[in-house]
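Render this sequence as a predicted structure.
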Amino acid sequence: MAIETPAPVAAPAYWHTLGVDEALNKLQSDPEQGITSKEVAVRIERYGTNELTEKAGRSPLQIFIDQFTNIMLLMLMAVAVVSAVLDIQAKEFPKDAVAISSIVVLNGILGYMQEMNAEKALAALKRLSSPKVRVIRNGEILEISGKELVPGDIMLLEAGVQVAADGRLLEEQNLQVRESALTGEAEAVNKEAHLILEADASLGDRLNCVYQGTEVVQGRAKVLVTKTGMQTELGKIASLIQDVETEDTPLQQRMSQLGNVLVTGSLILVAIVVGIGLLNKGNFGDLLKTSLSMAVAVVPEGLPAVVTVTLALGTQRMVRRNALIRRLPAVETLGSVTTICSDKTGTLTQNKMVVQGIRTGQHSLQVSGDGYVPTGEFTILGNPPEDSHLTVNNIPEVQQLLMACVFCNDSILQQKDGEWIIIGDPTEGALLVLASKGGCDFSEWQHRMPRVFEVPFSSERKRMSVLVQGEHGGNVLFCKGSPELTLECCTHIQIGDQIHAIADFQRQHVLAQNNELASRGLRVLGFAYRTLPELPAGGITEKDESNLVWVGLVGMLDAPRPEVREAVKRCREAGIRPVMITGDHQLTAKAIAEDLGIAFKGDQVITGKELELMSQSELEQQVNQVSVYARVSPEHKLRIVQALQKQHNFVAMTGDGVNDAPALKQADIGIAMGITGTDVSKEASDMILLDDNFATIVAATEEGRVVYTNIRRFIKYILGSNIGEVITIAIAPILNFSVPLIPLQILWMNLVTDGLPALALAVEPAEPNVMKRPPVDPRENIFARGMGSYMVRIGIVLAIITISLMVWAHGYTTTHFDNVYSANRWETMVFTTLCIAQMGHAIAIRSNTQLTIELNPMTNPYVWGSVIMTTVLQLVLIYVEPFRIFFGTYLITSTELAVCFGFSALMFVWIELEKLAIRWWLWQRQS
């Protein structure tokens, strides 16, 4: 009988709120027969294939063309065209136009290479979404590609397979699913098909559903496929990733702002100069050449290359500190971070369950140690003086509990390449580590007392029982599981080496101990046992699991990384607020946040359910006061980051799961885990922590601040020099001089004379207080904190020095030399003075307050090396004939060269005097 085609399912469909029969009826599917091949074709037509689709983006050609919409490059292109026309009219080779065009193309290629870091997050998601899968169709079991699944298919799951679509469980046997790809939590989830849940249940609490991209750890199940393709939870993440618009970094915004100011200022200055020239009846051709030279002078052609190289050097230093930068601008962006939103599991914690506490009938013990290393101390809390001799080795009930930990266990603890690892469930692994810390050789115990029967943990029973054969003929049944349910099976309790009937007050005491451990965010397991004189014939029955002897409780936690506390402290000293965003339970999240210093006693914790009820404006009002978010979904993480950004926070987001990818992309800087991180999170990020260490973020932030400080330093250097060039060129016609510099000479200064020392300034070491000051305001103007006034002031001083030299040199050369060739030597002297004066500027600008003589030259020998190299190259342009002819310079005498050096030295002297004036002013303020 043909199955009718169902109407398209309304979205969102809360499948976890439906019973099994209701879900089957909604999709008109049969749990035994599945759907027919004919129906599959109809549903593929309606719902599409089970694939993630990609929105169209810019083509590589469009990205390349977009590089030339930069206002400074547009002005240079216009200059190149005009210069070429003038040279062709004069029947000269257009070398200026060729040189300018080369610079334009080079800058375009640099921008293209940075931007063509292709978005691969969706490709990584696609690899998660299309595994092979077994289904029931036409009453037969088939293996098909995941992309062929449709809603209504009956999917079969077993241990080790990857879930290929979202689905509602129809039936399951001991099913455990690792959902860390979606929820970020490492612990496998026990699934239960019979449950019907509330509509507001979070993704991590939907125990009757499975989701695409997750992994079956244990058991098997039959699943009704409910959503495929972009309608799945994984598909929603893909949509979120693609919907996030990438904004320019603060550096990119500042560089755009700088370009607008320079071009606007240049055009105004050109208009003034041309206007004055025309009023004075100047030659229009000469005025046009002046304008071209000014336009070339105002654009820092070498700046993009210097910034790119500086960021690249920063990435190399960060790699040495275990931070891999995927996008160059992220280096500088780190210096502006005000808030770090961090996932909990694997980022702040070790992603390893560690037992922290034991509770027995009369003792409370605290357990120390990190990770899976089987060494640690047992401390008996509240130990009275008369019991000071007690240790874990002579407390019988603790020894019995450790035995239960060993036998109720399917994991393996082993050392590999010097590191202790767990094969199996992390929770059971933690119990083996606990036993080892207590001096138990679990391998020997398991050999001496072999396991006879086992009843595995199930979601219905919420406990695991094993029967082992004792050394002296007896048999012991050990039980572990939910403390409340295990306690219900107990009629006795062990106190010391005695077994007593359990009283009501003792039951209440055990439940109070359970609540105390749970309130600290620990996962709590209860342990009990009994002896059986004979082996049960048919295995362990419920009767065998009755009349148990209560032994105690074990509380465990995914322990914080030991170095994170110090990292959080350094963040706060640097004015950076850490925020925890996790899919884990709120009690666990709060306990770890308080332990690490992220949150404090009494701080508010917001859950995913509470977030659902909040409008975005309500969230924005609270986001600056909340440091812990628990039980959140991918959409929640994205909302939190957006709300923080709306409140003018500059946000870094750390994460490792697929669920983190949208928020990583939305954040001002996304930081993925290198070891535990998924490919999706890495491709969506700007930076990857190679050691998965939160503390590495602090080191990377320090490097980011150093890079930004150095970028400001060499921008001051380059633009101060450029302003001096522009003023000199503008004043020359007003003083009835010809333009002293041709565009090719200006390009030389902007690329070589400015570029080499600027690169050297880019590796200036960190200042001592770099992590003791607040983050740089990302909205800060490029000219903020005195940078604009400095550049204008230095530009004016450089222009005054150069114009003074120009006036003297023009008079000197025209007086002492007759022919035109010799008379034009003053132009070469102006060119040389500008270049050499910038060398003095480079030496002096290393510090704002310390005199050059006070600085250790070996802290940055590259500055001195670049100054010497640039000076030698400048002399090559004057005294080596091929270069002299190409760059249009003239031979000058040694006396004239000495005069150039003398005038140039005044630049260095001026800056050093400014430092003395600043020091005097600071001294006056302090006194």
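Summary. The CA atoms of residues 651 and 668 lie 5 Å apart. The chain has four domains: 15-52+128-227, 255-305+701-926, 334-347+562-697, 352-559.
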